[in-house]
Amino acid sequence: MKSVSSGGFWCLFVALCTFAGGVIFSGVNEGKPDWQAFLSALNAWSTFAQAIAAAFVAAIAYTGLNAWKHQIKHEKEINVVWSTMAALQQVDMSFQRMTLEALIFGLRTEPSQPQINIIEFLNNQPLGGYLKALEEQCVWMDRVVTDNGWEWVNRSGFIYSRAITYLSLYRGAPPSSSAEFPEFMASKTTGITEALEQFKLEVSSMEMKLKELKQQLQS
Q1: Are 81 and 61 contained in the same domain?
Q2: pTM summary value
Q3: How does pLDDT run across 9-67, given as a tens digit for each residue?
Q4: Same domain, 64 and 78
Q5: 105 and 132 housed in the same domain
Q6: Which domain holds residue 142?
């Protein structure tokens, strides 16, 4: 809620003081003061000031009531947006940790397991849980906040696919201390860099849209 008593209040205060001074000055004759006229003018100014104050208080009450009604109306939507922003932040931080772990420890397959199941691997990581939580929040976004099909569920799906793409490129990567690591990275650097950029782009786009919605609901 914007303050209604900042600039406007002081402008009104100065105007009332100027008006009061003019009224009081006009109630006094140039030679001898006419106290009867002075008191009459003072009483008129007091009545006028009370009317202005009452109107000012009524304006504040009306503005506060509208802000309260607006907050009640959009409180649920704002809570959903906040929760979605928190879920997105957890996904982003968890993905950064996973990329660091993949760089250091690699995703080397065992001899008995020629190929890592990327989806199964991701679901067993903290990032997998955060991605599921984000998808659930996006369902609420589509049902409660916006009415644009499955826009937010699709956004969470894009982020999930970017994570899968990154892990797929890192499948079979040896640890960074291994002699095979430079050779592996030489063949995968371009694809890994693009996967990282696409993931960051999806997260950034979703975060920006959430901030816009939050501002709209709070204004």
Answers
A1: no
A2: 0.66
A3: 566 566 656 655 655 555 554 445 555 665 666 666 667 667 777 777 766 766 655 55
A4: no
A5: yes
A6: 74-218
